[in-house]
Amino acid sequence: MPFLVVAAFVTLLLVGVGWYFSGQVVRPRLFGHDETWDIELDKDRIDPVWWNSLPTQEVWIDSPFGYKIHSIWVPSTPSKRTVILVHGITYTLSGSVKYMPLFWNRGFNVLLIDDRYHGKSGGWNCTFGFYERWDVKACADWVYAQTGQDSAVGLHGESMGGAIVLQASAVDPRLQFVVSDCAPADLSEELGARLSDDYRLPAWLIVPVASLVTRLRAGFWFSQVSPIHDVTRVETPILFVHGQDDDYVRPQMAQRLYDAKVHGLRRLYLAPHATHAQSFWQNKLEYDRILGAFLKDAGLMNATSATEPSRSSRQ
After folding, report:
1. What is the full DSSP assignment across 21-84?
2. Per the confidence metrics, is the pTM higher than 0.90?
3. Every domain of the chain and the residues it spans
4. pLDDT tens, 166-217?
5. Which fold has domain 31-186+226-297?
6. What string of DSSP letters covers 95-107?
7. Can you tell me the distance from the alpha carbon of 269 to that of 243, in angstroms, rounded to the nearest whole number?
């Protein structure tokens, strides 16, 4: 009897820990929409005068899962080229505004989106791309309806957004390019690293339990969120970006993602002196130059620079 009591206690404890860490993935605490906008303004990452000069349109795109995806459409008339910008976990589309000039100044339309469960979008949980990839495809469908089926649509994602766009490229071969900035290569591996580094807990024991709990509460296993598996079959041109000093998502993940992409154009930029999601801020000119060269190699444009803009005041 004492053995059964101890076994039951250990099982309940393990399930409780698994539930907690599953929640960190599927139901994380979020920044509010207005809160993120204020943060970006306070950090001088958005120029309100420039933003207010843009022809922005708020749109609501239907998700295949029954909710609305909140988006802001910024058309560059006339243009047949569009980038969809995807933000990271707990944040909103405000965090993607910094990347806009890199594309807007090159004549691209821009669609900023709030990820599922984030910002003003619907959806009751976050899935690191398992469902979000189909939302991104729905957003691409919307763009093609606006600009024509013969137009060129690409993606840019940061952190979790980087993982989402890689997974989206595996389900939408129409895409012309993808830029993935500081993406984790595999959800199980990344959660295991967080358990080991942040909590000093045994990942080998907790990750499988948290994955099982996630399957029951959100409909997917962690193993089903694996960008490094998806890119092995993707032919779409991909630029992988990662900060060399990133100690949250290790830069080795970008190298492994690059190595795993065996079909089609691939490029890798390991940004000096950059921690997580800081590659652009620490290397604006180089980021711009490498992006321009990548877009040229992908056949989308000449290798022009966005740092000497004709239509925008700043980055």
Report:
1. HHHHHHS-----HHHHHHHHHHTT-S-HHHHHHS--EEEEEE-TTSSEEEEEEE--SS-SEEEE
2. yes
3. 1-30+187-224, 31-186+226-297
4. 999 999 999 999 999 999 999 999 999 999 999 999 999 999 999 999 999 9
5. Rossmann fold (3.40.50)
6. GGGGGHHHHHTTT
7. 8
